[in-house]
Automatic annotation (TrEMBL):
It comes from the Eukaryota. GO terms for biological process: proteolysis. Keywords: Coiled coil, Glycoprotein, Hydrolase, Metal-binding, Metalloprotease, Protease, Zinc. InterPro entries: Peptidase_M28B (IPR039373), TFR-like_dimer_dom (IPR007365), TFR-like_dimer_dom_sf (IPR036757). Residues 119-164 form a coiled coil. The keyword Hydrolase applies. Residues 143-258 form the Transferrin receptor-like dimerisation domain. It holds the Pfam family TFR_dimer. Belongs to the peptidase M28 family. M28B subfamily. Gene3D superfamilies: Transferrin receptor-like, dimerisation domain, Zn peptidases. This is Transferrin receptor-like dimerisation domain-containing protein. Its cofactor is Zn(2+). GO terms for molecular function: carboxypeptidase activity; metal ion binding; metallopeptidase activity.
Length: 263
């Protein structure tokens, strides 16, 4: 049974339905933002490569994501009970969502991890990088062609992996199920660069990380964009090329991890 939205006019409206209507995306699914920093998931997602989620309930806009007294001395149980969520119905609904995510991850034989969404995010972020930094990259004679080829290979391997995973969903072969799960977990960790991002050794994920100048924001290809941030002042194109090379290496290795191993 779907978790209901306690604040909807129609009592049968689910949280998913409300989320989709308030925050749609071009894919036809609800919008997912990237993870920033400033919370307990940070070392898991940014340092060791464990998929993480940050959930909150927002009423109207991405511009007003938290209640007005958030992180102030007035952010107390009394304020929540008196003004924000008197019957704690919203708290309950969000807790139910979190509990169901944990239960599904624990109970399903194959991890509920959709690599199709992952490769689409990777491709979309690459397109944004090419669009937003095209003239700047040309100025430094930096090409993303090799990265684009590796992303294409990764996408093909991700599609093939999802097909194998779908065929294995009903089998009782523990070894094969374990292999699929290990591949998915190892794939995420392939994007962890052991030496960290430039000037930020505690942030090691080369695809997604908090913005260098806004810890609550999220950046894609953070090593590359960090290196480009003050390029007019630093003129350190060597660092930019190094970061592009690092991402190419990580994407290539992640794609290899997803390749079939039973040939």
């Amino acid at each position: 049974m779907l978790v209901k939205d306690p604040n909807a006019h129609d009592k049968d409206t689910s949280l998913y339905d409300r989320w989709l209507s308030k925050f749609p995306s071009a894919s036809g699914k609800p919008h997912f933002g990237g993870l920033g920093s400033g919370s307990d998931y940070t070392p898991f997602s940014n340092f060791i490569g464990v998929p993480s989620i940050d959930m909150h309930y927002s009423f109207n806009s991405m511009n007003v994501s938290f209640y007005t007294v958030y992180h102030t001395v007035h952010d107390t149980f009394y304020w929540q009970k008196t003004f924000n969520d008197p019957h704690f119905t919203t708290h309950l609904s969000m807790s139910q969502i979190g509990a169901r995510i944990v239960l599904e991850a624990a109970d399903t034989p194959i991890l509920p991890y959709n690599l199709t969404d992952y490769k689409e995010a990777l491709k979309g972020n690459l397109e944004s990088l090419q669009k937003d930094y095209k003239s700047l990259l040309l100025k430094g004679n930096v090409t993303l062609d090799h990265l684009s080829r590796e992303v294409t290979k990764f996408s093909s391997n991700a599609d093939a992996f999802e097909q194998r995973k779908a065929m294995a969903s009903d089998i009782q072969d523990f070894a094969k199920l374990r292999m699929l799960n290990d591949q998915m977990m190892s794939m995420e960790r392939a994007f962890i660069w052991p030496f960290g991002l430039p000037g930020r050794k505690s942030y090691r994920h080369v695809l997604f990380a908090p913005q260098m100048h806004n810890a609550y924001g999220s950046a894609s290809f953070p090593g590359i964009t960090d290196a480009l941030f003050d390029i007019d002042k630093t003129n350190n194109w060597k660092l930019v090329k190094e970061q592009v090379s690092i991402v190419i290496t990580c994407v290539r290795e992640a794609g290899k991890i997803l390749a079939a191993v039973d040939k």
